[in-house]
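Task 17 of the worksheet. Students: predict the tertiary structure of the chain below and write it out as structure tokens. Keep your answer in the requested format; marks are given for formatting as well as content.
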Amino acid sequence: MTTWNPTRRDFVKTTARAGGALGALGALGHLACAAPGDGDMAGGDPGPPDPQRILILGGTRFIGPHQVKYALDRGHEVSIFTRGRTEPPFFHDYFERVEHLIGDRNDDLSALEGREWDAVIDNSASIPRWVALSTELLQGNVGRYLFVSSISAYVDFASVGIDESYPVGQLSSPDAENEYGPGKARCEAINTEAFGEGAINVRPGLIVGPGDNTDRWTYWPVRVARGGEVLAPNSPTDPVQNIDARDLSEWIVRLVETPGTGGTYNATGEVQTFGAMLDEIRAALGSDATFTWVSTEFMEEHGVRPWGHMTNWVPPEGESIGMNQVSVAAAVEAGLTFRPLGATARATMEWWNTLPEERRGQMRAGLPAELEAQVLAAWGERG
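Model answer:
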């Protein structure tokens, strides 16, 4: 068996490139403003509490706009702190109701000075110095500070069922700013040191759904929708986890609404098998796709890479055995809910089909059609 370790190489590198799994979001057009259809919403929403004042550091990319919309719909007042360079790609009417504070987390937090909020959602930091500056400034003027971290904070994935007590990575030096996973872990520690019981650290895994321009999960509904014989990784029993951006964003808002929710939470989605995931996508899209499960060794021999080509999959062995089997029990107890995967697949395809043809012709992740055909042919010709 070959052992592939994504923790500090492939997985962290691609996660960091996508902004900590918060990849840039393409325009959703009318889909962004449409009300969810029946069965599209996760259950368990307790309804809005008293209005809160919420500051979002970031807010104009993948999960931020979902947070803005959900918070405003629940009656909260929202401020966002950005450099003012990125136009929100959707929900423009909502952003007209948001207070826009302009600055730079490197050297200009003056727009936040002397201000008070009930809660802060920090979407945009992977550099510990940024969190140190913002927590120092806001300490005493904010009740709760939620930092969006990553499961890349863990030192490895060598165990199944990793919970929030598992060891995290350590920076090579106190001033290091280019070590994504250990940097996220240090950001968490700074938040906890500053806010104590008011500190919330959320560790997502792969965030999926309409608008994810990394294509790291989008590849699967797009490929299944095309139909025919689909190359699938290794075994239908291999584990997989992903979380819809809307489920994550809405839960984050609910966390900061309520005092007493401090702590650290994995937010990777429920564990399911890869076969079940593909079957749900196929059923939701009404596809005629069939799945051919090609072994890890054969894929490696033919240049098919985990995570890059076989997106959302790594070999469940060695130091990657637990990567798609992380415990979300604490988050579920704290109110995290999950909408049906089929609803995520449908919404993803509806968004995908609004994109320009040129964009849809160049997937940013996944297995190129020519290589897929070559490997499937070779697999079928085995003696």
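Marker's comment: Residues 180-195 form the longest helix (16 residues). The first strand starts at residue 53 and ends at 57.
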